[in-house]
Design a protein that fits this description.
Chain A: It is an enzyme of class 3 (hydrolase). Chain A: It holds the Pfam family WHD_HRQ1. The structure holds two protein chains of two kinds. Chain A has five domains: about 210 residues, Rossmann fold (3-Layer(aba) Sandwich); about 210 residues, P-loop containing nucleotide triphosphate hydrolases (Rossmann fold); about 60 residues; about 55 residues, no CATH class; about 220 residues, no CATH class. Chain A contains 25 helices and 36 strands. The termini of chain A are far apart. Chain B is built from eight helices and nine strands. A seven-stranded mixed beta sheet of chain B has the order 1-2-7-6-5-8-9, sandwiched between helices. A two-stranded antiparallel sheet of chain B has the order 3-4. In chain B, strand 3 and strand 4 form a beta hairpin. In chain B, helix 2 runs parallel beside helix 7. The longest helix of chain B has 29 residues. The chains are: A alpha/beta, B alpha+beta. The interface between A and B is large, with 51 and 37 residues.
């Protein structure tokens, strides 16, 4: 819609000059922005327009389905949809990893509906969110209606009323649910679903790239339980999985279902030209390396785009930021309350009806600008858009592409802009356009045999069906685990069978999002509230929930007022301080067993089991932007210990003596290199930064090094005392370890990709714009230190050069 | 204790799971302390010989006990119109089969089982009770088959809360043993509902114990609370005494007789 000239808009036209003139598409806007803001753009590239690759509707498709498709205007398929049809017809398990908006859902709806029509076959769909599930059902119903196919699809989730459940179990051809419901409601009551299971032919799992790490490891076990229950009913359903573009879709899908999977990765969907800009806010204080906020930049880009007549979507990282950006844009575009709003916010926390209304308006093209959280990222249909602006890096390349995929029309070029925040990961990505151009650097990883997770699911599985001696659960012989459960008294062994005997419902005690159940809850006490606002893993609690800590929840700062360690509760209030807190923690690692090792340059790389002892001794208050240290606080919490897996690098004393003037220098280099390696490793395994930790010490656990107040290494021989002179041989070791008891499988893939990691870490340090070091490369450096002859960046590079493969 | 168990215990401690407190640290409620005491014993082989293991009833299949008794109370009702229980037909007393199960708990789902099925009917003018009790898990299938053999296509089931509890639970057990559920399609008078319609808000609650006291003036003697039945059976299964099983059987038997008494009350009312 074209509003009448609005005085505010006109003033902005004058400000932005020629930029605001209407443009015909994202390409023109991209060129203008690139000309005007050359120094802010760190990467600009174009994905060319591509014609569709089509295939006729398969001849073996049931006629009513074909008619339904034609009635909906589909008279041919994209090549990848036809490929999926053939592969499923051949009985193969399939993973479809094609870009957003390439028509992935037809890849599974066609085989599922045709089996429902022809053989009364049933299907189970698993989606990570309720909103996605509802959209999917709406789509199925439309297709069903178009052809009067008589296929019944229902959502089954926590909101499904009790009296509807029975009907869904008996009459649903397609049941759309989520992994948590499968885990807690369906499998433990499988006998009620007997008819459904007896006819279950397809299991569809969408967004499998989100099932990684702890959550993915749990989901893989839920799928083991599902397949075990299916075997009881005499069926072995076919799996159709969908993923965003990641580096290892087939390997990941196959790890989830533990069966060979055919991967379909080439999309046949036509795409319009797509421009991508990587945008780093300008440096506003060169001395401190301070940049303008991402928010100011996103606001500017969105304003320019909307004014140029392009439908624009801005993704923000938090609900609060959605409201802030919406307000800024509304101030410009919605100043006249008599006119329909041109700008809308979309986020979780709105009522479903409000969200549906927003979606309808967007589809109808009545809205010019949308500001959203990730709530819009997955699947929700809002029609075509021209420009997507990401206010901050969304945490993975896969998610970046999913969000960019929101923009795109067939006939017109679209534009995606990634605006980096000051976060180290943002700064890393904005300087590496190649991550968005070549093969994805991200690999989704799971560790389904993580001991605590495995025990939890064998417990749940035993509740569902008795185990017999020697039965396998995944690749594991379950017997020793069953014996542990029998010792606990929840199972009873009789002859060759282990049967559930306890009066409890184990699935209720197992959360798919944590390892074991020692989690802390975070209770908001702001203004008399007493509500739970977050949950924190036990292993992260000491580092993030000490009294005085500033704890960020969805980018909103809370201060911890009281920590009830034994009650596993942290009481917080909302705060507006200008600093964040950083735990001063002493971590000592000791290698217990090396599984594997290899030479790495002048040194060696290893993978194995370690013992970690950790004490949080206090915390620093650090001012935002300037990273000034403005104070300290004490912390008095029990020491933590952890048996986990790690990857580590070591250099022999001789190599160090040649490269460094003295030990202090070498240790400074190790700590700095650890910072850089940690950043690149987090990306490589798609981990949260806190799930993977770094440390520097000696291999035998005799001493460890921590940065002092100036970022320089200090040696300690035990948790607590300072010990300037380490005794014994000097073999500094750089560790990256899994922050969960028993590990969640992050370190093995890191060992596999060790050479890549060192190379990437070197590039990270070398390409960083800072002079001596900054949080985005080797860690914060004090201003006084910038004049040092051998800055941390140089020392880090020396260490990395020594361990790089020759 | 196995090495795996030790390892898992260590990892759980590191994950912040509070270890279970040492047993017997403080006095526990009766049933629980009994259960824990039994758990501390070594499983299998021991204890059985030391304790006289006289089980209720006689063995009809490996691990399956059947006790059968007859009495004159409660008396058989005349043929009655069952519409008070929303079963729209006139029911002859010989079609009635009263049932009540004792289970391993209330958690629900596939992990809860019945270890005792008590059934009663009016047979040759007397109130006949038959109780099936399993003493091994493997005997469950035989118990289910025996129970199924007592049902006829025209059987009218009578229970207290059986529609939502006992019947679905048995249905799950039949399903897990890959057997058709014999309860399917049978008429079922669940007395909880007419009782509720009648006395909700009049008595403090509508539990069976309350109803039998108020309506039938039954006083139970040395009754084992229903909630302690799981522990009694589990204790026996793990090598403990069989004595508590007799108390469970008496409790179940009283439930059946009260069921008959309450049914009689409604049938007389509907005849009047």
């Amino acid at each position: 819609m074209n509003a009448l000239p609005n005085p505010l808009a006109q003033r902005a036209v004058r400000q932005d000059g020629a930029l605001a003139a209407p443009v015909s598409g994202g390409d023109q806007l991209a060129r203008r922005l690139a000309r005007r803001y050359r120094d802010r753009i760190t990467g600009a590239f174009v994905l060319p327009r591509r014609e569709g690759d089509y295939a006729p509707l398969p001849a073996d498709m049931p006629a009513p389905l074909m008619e339904a498709l034609r009635a909906r205007g589909v008279d041919r398929l994209y090549a990848h949809q036809a490929q999926a049809w053939q592969a499923t017809a051949a009985g193969e398990h399939v993973v479809v990893a094609t870009p957003t908006a390439s028509g992935k859902s037809l890849c599974y709806t066609l085989p599922v509906i045709s089996a429902a029509i022809q053989q009364q076959a049933k299907a189970l769909f698993l989606f990570p969110t309720k909103a996605l599930a509802q959209d999917q059902v709406a789509e199925l119903l439309e297709l069903n209606q178009a052809g009067s196919l008589g296929v019944k699809a229902f959502t089954f989730d926590g909101d499904t009323p009790g009296d509807a459940r029975q009907a869904i179990r008996l009459h649903g051809d397609i049941v759309v649910s989520n992994p948590d419901m499968l885990h807690q409601a369906i499998l433990p009551h499988h006998t009620k679903w007997a008819q459904f299971f007896e006819n279950l032919r397809f299991v569809v799992i969408d967004e499998v790239h989100t099932y990684r790490g702890v959550f993915g490891s749990h989901v893989a076990n839920v799928l083991r339980r599902l397949q075990r229950v299916c075997a009881f009913y005499g069926v072995s359903p076919q799996f159709i999985l969908c993923s965003a573009t990641i580096g290892n879709p087939a390997q990941h899908a196959s790890a989830l279902i533990e069966q060979p999977v055919t991967a379909i990765t080439e999309s046949g969907a036509p795409v319009g030209e797509k421009h991508v800009l990587l945008w780093n806010p300008p440096v506003v204080n060169p001395d401190l390396g301070l940049r303008a906020s991402a928010r100011s930049q996103s606001n500017r880009i969105a304003r320019t785009a909307i004014r140029a007549g392009l439908k624009t979507l801005v993704f923000a990282q938090s609900r609060l930021m959605v409201e802030v950006l919406t307000k800024y844009l509304k101030d410009v575009f919605d100043s006249d309350p008599r006119k329909p709003a041109r700008i809308r916010a979309y986020r979780g926390g709105y009522l479903p009806t409000e969200r549906r209304a927003a979606e309808r308006e967007m589809r109808a093209g009545q809205v010019d600008g949308i500001v959203s959280t990730s709530a819009l990222e997955l699947g929700v249909d809002i029609g075509a858009l021209d420009v997507v602006v990401l206010n901050g890096y969304p945490g993975s390349v896969a998610a970046t592409w999913q969000r960019f995929g929101r923009a795109g029309r067939r006939q017109q070029a679209s534009l995606g802009v990634l605006v980096a925040s000051s976060d180290p990961l943002d700064q890393y990505f904005v300087r590496h356009p190649e991550f968005f151009q070549g093969a994805s650097p991200e690999h989704a990883r799971i560790a389904p045999d993580q001991p605590l997770i495995l025990l939890d699911h064998i417990r749940c599985a035993a509740f569902e069906l008795p185990f017999h001696d020697g039965e396998r659960f995944g690749p594991q012989d379950a017997t020793p685990w069953l014996q542990v459960l029998a010792e606990e008294g929840v199972l009873h062994q009789e002859g060759a069978r282990f049967e559930w005997i306890a009066d409890s419902y184990p699935a209720n005690a197992v959360s798919l999002r944590s390892v074991a159940d020692g989690n802390f809850v975070v209770v908001d006490r702001t203004q008399g509230r007493q509500t739970i606002v977050a949950e924190v893993d036990f292993s992260a609690a000491a580092l993030t929930l000490y009294e005085g800590a500033i704890h960020m929840i969805q980018s909103v700062p809370y201060q911890v007022e009281r920590l009830d360690w034994t009650g596993r509760k942290a009481f917080v209030t909302h705060t507006n301080v200008d600093y964040y807190t950083d735990a001063i923690d002493y971590t000592r690692l000791k290698v217990l067993e090396a599984f594997d090792h290899s030479p790495a340059g002048a040194g060696s790389a290893h993978h194995g089991e370690v013992h970690v002892a950790r004490r949080v001794a206090g915390y620093k208050k650090i001012r935002y932007y300037t990273h000034e240290n403005i104070g300290y606080g004490p912390v008095n919490l029990p020491d933590l210990e952890l048996h986990t897996t790690a990857v580590w690098w070591q250099l022999p004393q001789r190599a160090l003596e040649q490269a460094f003037d003295h030990r202090q220098q070498a240790l400074d280099g190790f700590l700095a290199a650890a910072h850089a390696l940690h950043i690149v490793a987090t990306v490589a395994v798609m981990a949260e930064a806190r799930d993977l930790q770094k440390a520097v010490g000696s291999g035998d656990g005799a001493w460890f090094a921590t940065p002092d107040l100036n970022g320089r290494a200090q040696i300690r021989s035990s948790l607590g005392e300072l010990d300037a002179s380490a005794h014994g041989p000097f073999i500094p070791t750089l560790y990256l370890y899994d922050a969960f008891p028993g590990g969640v499988g992050l370190s093995a893939p890191l060992f596999e990709r060790r050479e890549d990691l060192v190379r990437l870490a070197r590039e990270l340090v070398q390409r960083c714009d800072c002079r001596a070091g900054c949080p985005a490369c080797v860690g914060p450096v004090l201003a006084a230190d910038e004049q040092n002859d051998t800055p941390l960046k140089v020392l880090a590079t020396r260490v990395l050069d020594l361990v790089v493969a020759l | 204790m196995s090495a795996l168990a030790d390892k898992l215990r260590g990892l759980r401690r590191q994950a912040g799971v509070t270890p279970t407190p040492p047993r017997r640290a403080e006095p526990l409620p009766g049933g629980l302390s009994q259960l824990l005491a039994v758990r501390q014993r070594k499983p299998v082989s021991m204890a059985r010989s030391a304790v006289p293991q006289v089980l209720p009833g006689h063995t009809i299949a490996p691990g399956l006990q059947l006790s059968e008794t007859s009495g004159i109370w409660p008396p058989a009702p005349a043929a009655f119109d069952a519409s008070f229980a929303r079963v729209g037909e006139v029911v002859a007393p010989e079609r009635l089969l009263l049932f009540d199960t004792e289970t391993t708990g209330l958690a629900g789902g596939t992990g809860t089982r019945a270890f005792m099925i008590g059934v009663a009917d009016w047979h040759h003018g007397q109130f006949r009770e038959r109780q099936l009790l399993i003493t091994t898990l493997a005997a469950e299938a035989a118990m289910l088959d025996c129970f199924a053999s007592w049902l006829r296509p025209d059987t009218v089931l009578v229970s207290y809360n059986g529609k939502s509890y006992d019947a679905p639970l048995l249905k799950t057990r039949f399903r897990l043993h890959q057997r058709a559920c014999p309860l399917h399609g049978l008429a079922h008078i669940d007395l909880l509902h007419p009782v509720r319609r009648r006395w909700r808000g009049v008595w403090e609650n509508c539990r069976l114990a309350t109803v039998e006291r108020q309506l039938l003036h039954v006083v139970r003697e040395d009754d084992l609370p229903g909630s302690e039945a799981p522990a009694a059976w589990l204790g026996f299964l793990r090598g403990g005494s069989a004595a508590p099983l007799h108390r469970v059987a008496r409790h179940n038997s009283q439930d059946l007789r009260s069921l008959g008494g309450i049914l009689g009350h409604f049938t007389r009312e509907s005849a009047a």
